[in-house]
Amino acid sequence: MAFDNLITSGMTSVEEVAPDILSLRTLFVNVVFIGKPGSRSWVLVDTGMSKFTNHIVDVATERFQGPPSAIILTHGHFDHVGTVIELEQFWGVPVYAHPLEIPYLTGLKNYPPADPSVGGGLMAHLSFTYPNEAINLDDRIFSLPQNHTVPGTKGWNWIHTPGHTPGHISLFREADRLLIAGDAIISVKQESLWSVLLQDKQLHGPPAYFTTDWEEAHESVQRIRQLEPRTVVTGHGHVLSGEMLHESLRHLDMHFEEDTVPKQGKYVE
């Protein structure tokens, strides 16, 4: 554990999104805490990269009075579930995901391998090394409610936003139009190591090297745009809000085919 803390020191940062929303970056992917400081009722959205268990627990211990009510997964790629097994065992809480995502979270089905041929930078070039194997939460993973409510929260609903993965979801709160997007849209060019290191803020579609259905990915962008979010917390990059978000979503939707879909790749028709 001490070694894990050593190698991950300096690789986290926090962003206060709203009084009850905190985003924690683990290396290059965000996890989100939903709940007011001091609360005994809160949830964790995604669990980031492996080796960051202690960081997540430390933030949670400082911010809340007890374990979360639930862990919600936007999807099951390695960088979003890296600590989920350890956290579930430590806290003893249920984990929820879309039913189409559960085979990848119960050891039944591996994700399609990443595709480095999409190009765009070193992160894409190295993606052949990224794990695509299923994890196994066994009987500790549950399907999200069919009525689209989010367990452990009030006022939140989940939205199916496939394309990046079959069971990808985003979370939306109507009261303040706040969206937790996962990887349906992201605010950094994830294919480029330079952009990732600089955390250059610009709206993009899902990470190209792991996205397998571009038609569904575009439909998910359109679905998000129709929600008219005021603030978006993405799986990679900084928070976006206001007019910049509005115009960026419009541009992403209108120019998705030419700007977002790779010119080549094994998952490009």
TrEMBL record:
It catalyses: 3',5'-cyclic CMP + H2O = CMP + H(+); 3',5'-cyclic UMP + H2O = UMP + H(+). Gene3D superfamilies: Ribonuclease Z/Hydroxyacylglutathione hydrolase-like. This is Glyoxylase, beta-lactamase superfamily II. Residues 28-236 form the Metallo-beta-lactamase domain. SMART domains: Lactamase_B (SM00849). Counteracts the endogenous Pycsar antiviral defense system. Phosphodiesterase that enables metal-dependent hydrolysis of host cyclic nucleotide Pycsar defense signals such as cCMP and cUMP. InterPro entries: Metallo-B-lactamas (IPR001279), NDM-1-like (IPR050855), RibonucZ/Hydroxyglut_hydro (IPR036866).
